[in-house]
């Protein structure tokens, strides 16, 4: 059973007074999310990430296509007991304290005392709000509201968690804590689907990613496979290069960067690195380091986003792997 399964999921909005103009927010999205993995939805603003999550949560309704969450169709509201959700811009009752709000959320799920009190206390400690549990939410910073939103998404101990831009408003320490929390959730066997445009967070966390652009799926796959195969060049660092060494470096370098007495430059993949090294050694260069430049998630992301859109009638589909 898949954690999430979509087939040609499409959302179209009608704009203008008479609804004559149409905007395609999501175009025939087909992908699968395995249970127990961290799955990242990547894309620029307006790519369709939030639309996808809202469709899966039945906060909006698809124009066409189908989807299943935890093996159940979207109109089966009973599966909402097993999912958690952090919206992109959480807005809570600002007169309540953090403890009061989480207690209220737990009541909505029918969690009774004393389990309710233990779970609320555990979540406050887990997201770093234990010392602020009695403070009114209106006095919270944006980062604190974000932490509270993550806590409420976990209040029912869900099997599947949807997080829409979970790192928004967090300082570097808070981002690291949230990243550690997401990894802990995976260790507990939970499935996490989150959207983000912060690529380092996705690269550090995700098992698989999907890149959306203009409402279409432009690429999807396992992160290790997407980034492992291609070498973008070789970085060479030299110590105190002489004019003769500089002449050799300029013949092969894609760019030259001088920092103090050191020179760093990139050799494009079309050049033979061994031949470059031989030429540098003949010029009596002092080579400090030699590092392959591997393809990054940012490179993959930009290549997919900037790629020409698929032709009309061509749906891009995610690579499907059977669950274990």
Explain what the structure shows:
With 324 residues, the protein is an alpha/beta fold. The chain has 2 domains: 4-227 and 298-306, Rossmann fold (3-Layer(aba) Sandwich), CATH 3.40.50.300; 231-294, 2-Layer Sandwich (Alpha-Beta Plaits). The protein has 10 helices and 14 strands. It has helices at residues 49-56, 98-108, 115-126, 142-153, 172-187, 199-205, 223-228, 243-252, 273-282, 297-306; strands spanning 4-15, 21-33, 38-42, 64-69, 72-73, 83-86, 160-164, 191-196, 208-213, 216-222, 231-239, 256-259, 262-267, 286-294. The strands form 3 sheets. A 6-stranded mixed beta sheet has the order 6-7-8-3-9-10, sandwiched between helices. Helix 2 crosses helix 3 (115-126). The longest helix is centred in the middle third of the chain and has 16 residues, at 172-187. The radius of gyration is 25 Å and the shape is globular. The N and C termini lie close together (10 Å). The model is unreliable at 310-324 (pLDDT under 50).
Label this structure with key terms:
single chain, 324 residues, alpha/beta, Rossmann fold, Alpha-Beta Plaits, 2 domains, 6-stranded mixed sheet, 4-stranded antiparallel sheet, 31% helix, disordered C terminus
Question: What's a quick, concise take on this entry?
Answer:
The protein has helices at residues 49-56, 98-108, 115-126, 142-153, 172-187, 199-205, 223-228, 243-252, 273-282, 297-306; strands spanning 4-15, 21-33, 38-42, 64-69, 72-73, 83-86, 160-164, 191-196, 208-213, 216-222, 231-239, 256-259, 262-267, 286-294.
Topology:
Blueprint: E1 4-15, E2 21-33, E3 38-42, H1 49-56, E4 64-69, E5 72-73, E6 83-86, H2 98-108, H3 115-126, H4 142-153, E7 160-164, H5 172-187, E8 191-196, H6 199-205, E9 208-213, E10 216-222, H7 223-228, E11 231-239, H8 243-252, E12 256-259, E13 262-267, H9 273-282, E14 286-294, H10 297-306
Parallel strand pairs: 3-8, 3-9, 6-7, 7-8
Antiparallel strand pairs: 1-2, 1-4, 4-5, 9-10, 11-13, 11-14, 12-13
């Amino acid at each position: 059973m898949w954690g999430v399964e979509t087939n040609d999921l499409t959302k179209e909005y009608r704009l203008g007074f008479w609804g004559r103009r149409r905007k395609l927010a999501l175009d025939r999205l087909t992908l699968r999310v395995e249970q127990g993995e961290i799955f990242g939805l990547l894309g620029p603003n307006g790519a369709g990430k939030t639309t996808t999550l809202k469709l899966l949560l039945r906060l909006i309704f698809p124009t066409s296509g189908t989807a299943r969450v935890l093996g159940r169709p979207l109109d089966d509201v009973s599966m909402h007991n097993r999912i958690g959700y952090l919206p992109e811009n959480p807005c809570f009752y600002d007169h309540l304290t953090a403890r009061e709000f989480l207690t209220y959320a737990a009541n909505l799920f029918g969690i009774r005392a004393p389990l309710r009190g233990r779970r609320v206390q555990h979540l406050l400690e887990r997201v770093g709000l234990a010392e602020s549990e009695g403070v009114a939410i209106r006095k919270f910073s944006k980062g604190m509201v974000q932490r509270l939103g993550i806590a409420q998404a976990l209040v029912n101990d869900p099997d599947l968690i949807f997080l829409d831009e979970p790192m928004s408003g967090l300082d570097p320490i808070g981002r690291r804590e949230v990243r550690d929390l997401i990894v802990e959730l995976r260790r507990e066997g939970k499935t996490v689907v989150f959207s983000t445009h912060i690529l380092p967070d996705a690269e550090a966390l995700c098992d698989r990613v999907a890149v959306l652009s203009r409402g279409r799926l432009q690429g999807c796959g396992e992160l290790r496979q997407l980034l492992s195969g291609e070498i973008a060049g070789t970085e060479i660092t030299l110590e105190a290069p002489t004019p003769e060494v500089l002449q050799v470096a300029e013949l092969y370098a894609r760019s030259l960067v001088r920092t103090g007495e050191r020179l760093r430059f990139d050799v494009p993949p079309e050049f033979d690195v061994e031949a470059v090294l031989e030429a540098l050694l003949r010029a009596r260069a002092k080579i400090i380091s030699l590092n392959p430049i591997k393809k990054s998630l940012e490179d993959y992301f930009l290549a997919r986003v900037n790629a020409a859109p698929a032709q009309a009638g061509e749906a891009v589909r995610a690579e499907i792997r059977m669950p274990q």
